[in-house]
Amino acid sequence: KMGKPDYELMYYLGLFSLKGGKPDQAFEYFEKAGKLNPNGFEVWYQIGLYNSSKDDHTKAAACFQRALKANPEHLPTMEGLGISLMAIGQEAQGMELFLKIITLSPENIKIRYRVAKIYLTKKNYQKALELFGQIISVAPTEYKALQGKADIMFLTENYSGAINCYNQVLEMMPKNYSA
């Protein structure tokens, strides 16, 4: 018979449930842990991820914000909040968080790529090209960044540059038919 549930037990039961492929059960444990320790940022981060996976980005954003109050420098929580804010139409705030992550974690290629793709869809080719270039300079084998650079060159009618980049992508990834 278990005694009074404690925060750590509920949190770890939630993590074990996640690893066991039971996200709904994990969510229940995380909610219990959140009630036991309202300032436990790990729990609010996990609940935010759960809500995000259910496409409830309004709830997810609230959970991520709660987690950030307890741990303002937690980069994965910032990213989760940025994604949720973008999903609910608060693009400026989401972009602000992504740019903050780039400043705090210059080696974070994933966020640079995400922001570059956002700039690309907004047709801000110069900023997207700059970010793709930064990724390539840090990780020359990052073919997605090279392909993004090629796409921008194509869209801006720099066809010879685009062909050169697409050929480099094909050398790295011979079965990449999108290049």
Overall description:
The chain is mainly alpha-helical. 75% of the residues lie in helices and 0% in strands. The chain contains ten helices and no strands. Helix 3 packs parallel to helix 5, helix 5 runs antiparallel to helix 6 and helix 6 runs antiparallel to helix 7. The chain is elongated, with a radius of gyration of 20 Å. The mean pLDDT is 92.
Q: What's the topology here?
A:
Blueprint: H1 7-19, H2 23-36, H3 41-53, H4 57-70, H5 75-87, H6 91-104, H7 109-121, H8 125-138, H9 143-155, H10 159-172
Helix pairs in contact: 1-2, 2-3, 3-4, 3-5, 4-5, 5-6, 6-7, 7-8, 7-9, 8-9, 9-10
How much strand?
under 5%
How would you state the average pLDDT, rounded? 92
- Radius of gyration over C-alpha positions, nearest whole angstrom: 20 Å
What structural class results from the helix and strand content? mainly alpha
Order of helices and strands: HHHHHHHHHH
Helicity, as a percent range: over 70%
Unreliable spans are none
Characterize the biggest β-sheet: none
> How far is it from the N-terminal to the C-terminal residue, by CA?
60 Å
Shape: elongated
The number of distinct β-strands equals 0
